[in-house]
Design goal:
306 residues; alpha+beta; four-stranded mixed beta sheet; elongated
């Protein structure tokens, strides 16, 4: 071995596929370490020696490295102690995904959950200190935090906490934009009713009622304020949302039909043609025992049948 001052000591996170294996299996995963060390050439897989919780590795460049292998959880803690909150949060998400493949969300290590929540809060503090007036940066921050929330599976409590933090910093709009993206991609279907109310009000203020309709159709009915939404449906002519609310919340198929008949009888021109087309589509779905629109499922197996 070369002198100690020529030997590099690196902290290399243990690849998820290595967890639960012995260090003797490590040569099969050399690419993981090549990436960490920045080498693109060959290395001699037999030229290593196990030492304590790490091993010596000899490369073709003639360097000798002492690598210490850590689990992803341990690496998150190390990065946190170094104040590298962004890197720690990234490694934390990797650790969650690795655990997700081996167990259910309910069986996540509580120590890992508390560690990642701590890292996320410190990362938020760091971002607020440097980028609070930058809506684009706040949007990205919201997306990162919501990704962690989805992985942790504690949506209701954590989203409310995150919303309060963004509201205090005056960054509600970027956070709600990030939230809308997760809703439309069906990654968040159950939200606290007060958060849904803020999202609906935000989109209403932007005079973009079609976005309200898209979001509502992707959310669980229990998260919605029916009085607020029925008022918006009437104001902005959101007939798809109206039908969805009557069918899902009130199990009423008749009222939407009556409403569409009444509105089409009062309309003229293109508006009348659009309403009549919607009326015929809705009626066809009902007669064939489908929810409206048809992709949402069948009417025959549930309270809608009445």
């Amino acid at each position: 071995l070369p002198d100690q001052d020529q030997t590099k000591t690196l902290q290399v996170p243990l690849h998820p596929t290595l967890i639960g294996t012995t260090l003797s299996a490590i040569p099969a995963y050399h690419q993981c370490f090549l990436n960490e060390l920045g080498y693109s050439g060959k290395w001699y897989g037999g030229c290593f020696a196990i030492w304590d919780n790490g091993f010596f590795l000899c490369t073709e460049q003639g360097d000798v490295h002492l690598l210490k292998a850590f689990t992803l959880e341990e690496h998150v803690a190390i990065l946190g102690r170094q104040g590298k909150w962004a890197d720690a949060l990234y490694q934390g998400s990797r650790a969650l995904k690795a655990q997700q493949k081996r167990t259910s969300v309910a069986q996540y290590s509580q120590a890992l959950i508390h560690l990642i929540l701590y890292v996320m809060n410190r990362f938020i503090d760091e971002q607020f200190e440097s980028h609070s007036s930058n809506d684009s940066a706040m949007l990205q921050l919201g997306q990162v935090c919501l990704q962690i929330v989805v992985l942790l599976g504690h949506e209701d409590d954590l989203i409310s906490v995150l919303f309060d933090r963004f509201r205090i910093e005056g960054s509600v709009s970027p956070f709600l934009s990030a939230l809308e993206h997760f809703v439309l991609n069906d990654r968040l279907r159950e939200l606290p009713p007060e958060i849904v109310q803020h999202l609906v009000e935000e989109l209403s203020m932007k005079d973009q009622p079609w976005r309200i309709e898209e979001c509502v159709m992707h959310l669980e009915i229990t998260a919605l304020d029916l009085n607020q939404l029925f008022g918006l449906c009437k104001k902005h002519k959101l007939y798809n949302t109206m039908i969805y609310l009557y069918q899902e919340a009130l199990h009423d198929n008749l009222t939407p039909l009556v409403t569409l008949l009444h509105e089409s009888s009062r309309a003229f021109g293109d508006t009348k043609a659009t309403l009549q087309s919607k009326l015929y589509s809705y009626l066809a779905c009902c007669l064939h025992s489908y929810l409206y629109p048809a992709w949402r499922g069948s009417l025959s197996n549930g309270p809608w049948a009445k």
